[in-house]
Amino acid sequence: MTELRSCTSEIILFFLDGESYLTLDCCRAVRVITHSCWPTMLSALGFTAEEADVLRGYCDAES
């Protein structure tokens, strides 16, 4: 969870900028949260289900 908090600004820029990328550490945190812990955790943190799906898809493709 701490790892995800540390990359929240990265995630926000990813959606606002459209050209940003997520670091491997951030993607690792997204994958752990969405696959191993609580799939709805990103929604609980204020991201929409669609945004969570985009993050999951981006990070799964990066691995």
Automatic annotation (TrEMBL):
The keyword Transit peptide does not apply. The keyword Secreted applies. One of its GO terms (biological process) is regulation of protein localization to cell surface. Keywords: Cytoplasmic vesicle, Fertilization, Secreted, Signal. InterPro entries: EC11-15, Prolamin-like. Transmembrane segments: none annotated. Its main location: cytoplasm. Coiled coil: none annotated. Residues 1-60 form the Prolamin-like domain. One of its GO terms (cellular component) is extracellular region. Involved in the regulation of gamete interactions during the double fertilization and to prevent multiple-pollen tube attraction; mediates the redistribution of the gamete fusogen HAP2/GCS1 to the cell surface after secretion upon sperm arrival. Belongs to the plant egg cell-secreted peptide family. This is Prolamin-like domain-containing protein. It comes from Vanilla planifolia.
